[in-house]
Amino acid sequence: MKKIKIGFAPTRRSIFSAPDAIKYANLTREKLNRLGVDYVDITDINEEGLLYDEGDRIKILEKFRREGVQGLFLPHCNFGTEYICARLAKDLNVPVLLWGPLDERPDENGIRLRDSQCGLFATGKVLRRFQVPFTYLTNCRLEDTVFERGVKDFLAVCNVVDVFRHTRILQIAPRPFDFWSTMCNEGELLEKFNIQLSPIPMPELTTEMKRVREEGSEVAKVMTYCREKMEIKIKDNELENVAALKVAMKNLADKYGCNAIAIQCWNALQGEIGIMPCAANSLLNEEGIPVVCETDIHGAITAVMVEAAGMDENRSFFADWTVRHPDIANGELLQHCGPWPISVAKEKPCIAYPLAFDHPGAVEAEAKHGKMTLCRFDGDNGEYSLLLGNAVGVDGPYTKGTYVWVEVKNIKRLEAKIVEGPYIHHCVGIHQDVVPVLYEACKYIGIKPDLYDPIEEDVKAYLRGE
Q1: What average pLDDT does the segment 9-19 reach?
Q2: End-to-end distance of the chain based on CA atoms, in angstroms?
């Protein structure tokens, strides 16, 4: 699993047992160690290794900032000092996990050592007063399975938020004229979300392609990889162009510090380099650098969110909603010319000619079936949301390009959501159920989760640990 660094700040309140708070803080540390969680501790701040004092809070804040934590974990080890927790969370501005160990029965004298649940109630209210969003992990024992699940889901949420807040997209040329649906508001994305674009003109790409082709070694490695992993149905010089495009895009993404790419892809590009970019896109997608078509900036944002939610364990695929399944009432075809990563395919892909274009360089393969998450980040008129839900792969007729037929619960409901917006005909899929993680991440990044099936209560129940 990808490593996410969190700040660990167990808290107590003075009127309850300090020794018991220390005991549960240490037990929690041991559990996190067993789970392999990367956390920054506060045992060097005070003798107890606990958060309860304003002076210590300042030192903890400085340490967590210095260490670059991506999330904050606030175990309430006897009750908790709610205002100190809220001040730390407000200043740190990262996702917050609120949890406390299940309280034991009172002793024979009626004495309770902790009241952790009561402290959680207090801190939840004060975090709301401070306008700090937080994730609540249900009051449970450390050995309960829900604890491990909740921590791992929180780490994935932190990953989504961190990646989203640091996304920079390499935009290769403007959108194709006909694609008014993929227009975006660059200034608004920066102002609202700190999402940055790095636009470059087409000649910058072709110049880099020429340079890497002349250098040769990296292009040759990519060609060898293609021949090993895919069936090649295009000419050697065309495959060389595919490889040169892949290497050039990777170099330019590195040059401009980008974690995703949106490329114009047609038609000016084909006239310049003589190939479709799909296979090169596929190769980069396989390496974990999402590349989307038709300069769809919102599509690129969706892709980085989805892969972050999956903790980079699986590659995503960028698709069109295209046509209804001819035989399955709630079936739909997800397809694109050929940019999907190799690991998504259920068969050996080939590089050939795409549907509706004369130029070579598209991947052909049906994707694996199984359960998937499908989603789309989009917005207009100043409001943004994330359409998301599940689907399952099903059998269907052969079609060109990279494709998979899927079945959803209610295609008419989904279709209406896409048409009525703010979404378009593009989506991103992944062979994982990351709906709860994405749903929870939305509260931290300021967008509305928009479930295309009425499963919100089920998602909330999962997040509650039910």
Answers
A1: 86
A2: 24
